[in-house]
Amino acid sequence: MGPAALAQVLRSLRLPSSPNLLIGLDVKDDAAVYQLADDLALVQTIDFFPPIVDDPYTFGQIAAANALSDIYAMGGKPILALAIAGFPENLSPTVISAILQGGADKVAEAGAVIAGGHTIIDNEPKYGLCVTGLVHPRQITAKAHAQPGDTIMLTKALGTGVVTTAHKRGAVRDADLRAALASMVRLNRRAAELAAEFSLQSATDITGYGLLGHANELAHNSSVGMRLSLSAIPLLPGAREYAQQGMLPGGLERNRTYLAGDGSIRLHPELHPDVVQLLFDPQTSGGLLLIVPPAQTAALYARFSAAQEPIWQIGEIIEGAGIEVTE
């Protein structure tokens, strides 16, 4: 569902709560957090979607990496996953097995296990995971707690939505698709482990609501503003060209319409419109958006560089509200 439709549905819900529920639906965050003890909490999330690539094993990998990402965004360590899937009755068992194996292998790479799951018959294949992780309550990197002066850093380039849309329309270059696939199957595990060496209080991952959608939620929850530099934001190979050609996924316009209605995004008038589109592009298995205290920015960047883990400084936290996008 798009952000506007989902917000309308959630407004009418009356849900039970608990003092142990540290993060639930009362705030927009990446996963739920439930405290078990003074030094231990569960992190739980679920995500699934239809295929965005042709190869079933790769689809399983991407779907699993995408679901696991929410645990990493909260500062947690995944330990257990349950598969959730819908498949047509006439879909080949070999294809189904390849999807499930791709997911299982990616969960194993994360150091977790798949312990079961649930399937239904569906006309369109769908696959994903419900993932449980562990986190110390004082080490949660919620989508909040950003402070003016903090640095904004991103760990993956943008553009998976437009690249996979170009693929669906038969217009993608092989090299560009390979780069997008490599990004989507790459776990955020190593980036999260490196970030955990520093005293970060706030983070999120960039998925279906695009960079601006998820960043806006973090800014709102933190009662701060953001200033992003468009020229500093990394793009996947071919992403800008496909945006120029109109290879835009439906979710991109939903994201843009929602944020335009919210009035929280302020775009510099001289920004190139094709590149701006990519800030609303719904990402699959996107990177982590890390909010880094200024005193730790240089050290964190050096640590990522030494580990050969990509990271880009794309902006800063400012006083006020909403997001300014400059050149």
Architecture overview:
This protein has two domains: 3-139, PurM-like, N-terminal domain (60s Ribosomal Protein L30, Chain: A, 2-Layer Sandwich); 151-326, Alpha-Beta Complex (Phosphoribosyl-aminoimidazole Synthetase, Chain A, domain 2), CATH 3.90.650.10. It contains eleven helices and 13 strands. It has helices at 3-11, 56-73, 93-109, 160-168, 174-185, 189-195, 210-222, 239-244, 250-262, 273-279, 297-306, and strands at residues 21-23, 32-37, 40-49, 77-87, 113-121, 126-135, 151-154, 202-205, 225-229, 265-267, 288-292, 312-318, 322-326. The longest helix is centred in the N-terminal third of the chain and has 18 residues, at 56-73. It is globular and about 55 Å long.
Comma- or semicolon-separated keywords:
327 residues, 6-stranded mixed beta sheet, 7-stranded mixed beta sheet, 11 helices, Phosphoribosyl-aminoimidazole Synthetase, Chain A, domain 2, 60s Ribosomal Protein L30, Chain: A, 25% strand, alpha+beta
Q: Note the main sheet.
A: 7 strands, mixed
Low-confidence stretches: none
Q: Count the helices. How many? A: 11
Assign an overall shape: globular
The level-1 CATH class of the largest domain: Alpha Beta
In the CATH scheme, what's the topology name of the largest domain?
A: Phosphoribosyl-aminoimidazole Synthetase, Chain A, domain 2
Query: Which band does the percent of strand residues land in?
Result: 25-35%
Radius of gyration: 19 Å
H/E topology pattern: HEEEHEHEEEHHHEHEHHEHEHEE
Number of structural domains: 2
